[in-house]
Amino acid sequence: MLIKVPSVANLGLESIKVDVEVNLANRGLPGFEIVGLPDKAVDESKERVRAAISSSGIDFPAKKITVNLAPADIPKEGSLYDLPIAIGILSSILQFTVPDKSLFFGELSLDGSLRHTKGALLMALFAREAGFQDLYVPKDSANEAGAIKGVKVFPVENLFQLASHFLKRKNIEPAVYQENSDNLPAPAEFDMKEILGQEQAKRAMEIAAAGGHNIIMVGSPGSGKTMLARALPGILPPLNEKESLEVTKIYSAAGSIPPGGSLITYRQFRAPHHTASPVGLIGGGTRPHPGEVSLAHRGVLFLDEFNEFPRQVMEAMRQPLEDGYLTISRSKEIVRYPADFMLVASANPCPCGYLNHPKKNCVCTPRQVRKYQKRISGPILDRIDLHITVQPVDATEFSDNQKNSELLESSETIRQRVILARKRQEERFEGESIQSNAQMKNSHIKKYCKLAKEVEQLLRQASMKFQLSARSYMKMIKVARTIADLEGAPEITVSHMAEVLQYRPKIYESI
Amino acid sequence: MGVYPCQNSITMENVITIKDKRYPELLGKIGKDAPEKIYYKGNWDSEIFKNCLAVVGSRRLTSYGRKITEQLVTEIASAGVTIVSGFMYGGDEAAHKAAAEAGGRTIAVMPCGIDMIHPEYQEELYNKILENKGLIISEYEGKFPPANWTYPRRNRIVAGLSKAVLIVEAGLNSGTLITAEFAKKFGRKIFAVPGPLTSEVSKGTAQLIKEGAEVVTEARDILKDYNISLTKPNLAKPSLNIEGIEQEIINQLQKEPLEADNLARILGMSVSKIGTTLSLMQLKGFINQEGGKYYVD
C-alpha cells in the first residue's frame, strides 16, 4: 500500500515541495528504509519514528517499509520529515486518509511528542503560495507559522493527538496567532544618556541610525567605542512589516526562532567576535547556511576591533555592503541570502592603542601605525559613510550639571527623531526598491538629491582639500540627505553638507 | 627596520675623503671622530657647509614640537642657514620638511648606506631635499643596512657639521640627547626649546636648559649667532573678517587645541552646529585638524 504525504525541502530561503512516499509491503523481510538523498538527520528519523509510534501505544508494523522523498535528486536535510513519515505509516495501519491540501512538518521525540523545528515560517509561506490550506506543525512552532495569513495552522502536541484528529475522535483546534509583545522595545544594553560626553560620536550614531549608514569609530581602548555601539539598538527604528518578514525568514531558515516565537519586529544587533570563521560570518557550509551578515539583515553588524578581522573576511563583505545581498555558490546549490545591514566598526588607531591619547604616550613607530591602519583596505573604508574619532572622556572636566544623566538626551528621544527621519525617507522612496538614504544608488542620488550651486561648490572644494574619492563624494551627499531628513528640511543646505565633512574618511590623515 | 634601494640611485660613486679640499671644515675639526669618507647624493657645493644648524627632535614629536619646528626652521632656513638633521621620522623629518618647503637648503645624514632610503616611506621627502639643492650624505657606502650602532654614530656627523645644535624636543636617555652630548664634546653651542614639564619629550630639553643650554623663543635668538639680523617681515596676518562663533572658536583654540566635543561643551552649543562651523572654518583655512583636535595655525 502506497501513501503520499506532502512536505517541503528548504534550500536557503526557497522551498520546494517534497512528496514523502511511504510504502508498507507485506512481502519481504521486515525493515525500514529511507531513500531520496537523505542526510544523517533524515536517516536517523527511522529510529525516532519507530519509537514514537510505539510510545503512542500503537504496534509498529512488522512489514518492509520503504520511504521515498521525491524528487529524489534534491538533497534533504533536517528532522522535519519525522512527522510526514510517521503519518504515512499510521494512515496505513490505522486506515485513515491523509487530507488533501495539507502539509506536514515536524521533528518527533521518542515519546511521541513533537518538538520545535526550524523553518516553520518558510513552510507556511510556501503553503500559501502553493495553495495548501492546512498546515500541521509542532505546537511550539505554530505561532511562527501562524504569522502568515491565509493558512490554517494546526498545532500538534503529539502523534497520538494527531491520529485521534484524523480518526475523527478528537479534533485539534487551529492555532490563533499571537503577536509577541515581549519583542517590541529593542533591547539595548545602555541608554545614550548614560554616556558622558562623546557628543559628536552620539550625533554620528543618530545620523547612522536615521539613514542606515555604515559607521567606523577609531579610538583608544576605554574611550567608549563599544559602549556607544551597544547603545545603538536603543535608537533604531522598528522594522516595518515587509522588513520584519524578510528578517524572520532568515532566522527561520537558521533555526534561530525560539519555541513559541514569531515575527521579529526589532532590528537585530549582531556582534561576532573577530575569531569567527569566514563561513560563520559570511555564510556557507556544504549546505549553505546564513552567516552573521545575513542575520544582521536590516539591522546592525557590529565588528569590534575591526582591523583584527582576517583580510579574507573583510573583503568578502564588499559585495553585501554594495548590493545588500550575498550569493553563496557551492557545487550542488547556489543560494542567495539577503544581507542589507548597517556596519558599525570600531578600531584602535595603532597597535598599542594610544596614538593621540591625551594622557598616555603611544609607543608605536609610524611604520607600525601605517601597517596597522592598512589592515582595513581602502575599498572597505570607501564603503563606510561616517568616520569618527572617539577620544577618552575625562569625567573631571564636566560640571555636575553636565554629568547629570537626567539632563542628557535619552535614547528614546533620539529614537523618535530617527523614526521621523525614516518616515520621510520611506515617503520619498515610495515606489522605489529602496527604503533608506544609505541604499541610494547613483541614479537615486541624481533624482532625489539635487544640490544647490553653493552646496555643490562647497563639496567640490572639500573633496579637493581632503582628497575624497568619487565614491566618498557620493557618500557625503547621502549622509547630507539624512541630516536634512533629521531636520525635516526639503533641500540639502550648506550647513548640512558642512556637518557631513566632520565625518569624512580621515584614518590616514593622522600620519 | 625595512630598507630598500632608492629609486634615483646615481651610478657614479660620489665620495669625498678627509684629505679632499672640499671636505667640510667644521667636520674636520672634530679630530679622530671625523669620518674618513663621505658618500653623498646631490650637488656637492662647499658653500652649503658654511652656515649649518643642526635641528634635532624626538621621534615622538608632539604637535607642539612640530609646530615650533616649522616656525623656527622656516625663518632660519629662509635666512640662508643650512639645516642639518638625521632623516629619522618625527623631529628630523619635520626639520627637513620645513627647510625644503621654505626653499632653504638642508643636509640629511643617513644612518645607512648611501644607496638606501631609510625610513623608506619618506622617499618623497628625500626627493624634496635634493630638489631644493640639498644634500644626502652618509659615511657608509652602498646598501649598508642601518643598525642600532649606526644611529648614534650618525649623530656625531650631524653635530660635527654644525655651528650650533637646536634641540626641539627630547626624552631622557634619547638619541636626541646623544647629539647634544656630541655638540658639547665638539664645543658647539646648544639651543633648546622650552616645553611643558608634563610632557615626556620635554624632560630632555629641560635638563639641557638646566645644564646651560640657551633657551630659544624665536628664530632671532639663533640667527644672531650666525650674524644674520632678521628684518622681521610683516607677519601681521591680513585681518580676516571673522565674527561671532568663529571668533569665539578661534579664541578657545588659541589657548590650546581642542576637539569638537570640548568646544561644544565650552561654548554651550549643539555639536552639529559646532561641527558645521568647524568644517567651514577648516575649508577657509582658519584652522587645522590633527589627531581629532583642532588648532589655529
Outline of this structure?
The complex is a heterodimer of chains A (511) and B (297). Chain A has 21 helices and 18 strands.
Model description:
Chain A is an alpha/beta fold and 511 residues long. Chain A is built from 21 helices and 18 strands. In chain A, the strands form six sheets. A five-stranded parallel beta sheet of chain A has the order 11-14-17-10-18. Chain A has a four-stranded mixed beta sheet with strand order 1-2-4-3. In chain A, strand 12 and strand 13 form a beta hairpin. Chain B has two domains: 215 residues, Rossmann fold (3-Layer(aba) Sandwich); 53 residues, Arc Repressor Mutant, subunit A. Chain B contains eleven helices and 13 strands. Chain B has a nine-stranded mixed beta sheet with strand order 2-3-8-6-5-4-9-10-11, with helices on both faces. Chain B has a two-stranded antiparallel ribbon with strand order 1-7. In chain B, helix 2 runs parallel beside helix 3, helix 3 runs parallel beside helix 4 and helix 5 crosses helix 6. The longest helix of chain B has 16 residues. At the A-B interface, helix 7, helix 14, helix 19 and helix 21 of A face helix 10 and helix 11 of B. Chain A: This is Magnesium chelatase. Chain A: It comes from Candidatus Nealsonbacteria bacterium CG_4_10_14_0_2_um_filter_40_15. Chain A: GO terms for molecular function: ATP binding; DNA binding. Chain A: Keywords: ATP-binding, Nucleotide-binding. Chain A: InterPro entries: AAA+_ATPase (IPR003593), CHLI-like (IPR045006), MCM_dom (IPR001208), Mg_chelat-rel (IPR004482), Mg_chelat-rel_C (IPR025158), Mg_chelatse_chII-like_cat_dom (IPR000523), P-loop_NTPase (IPR027417), Ribosomal_Su5_D2-typ_SF (IPR020568).
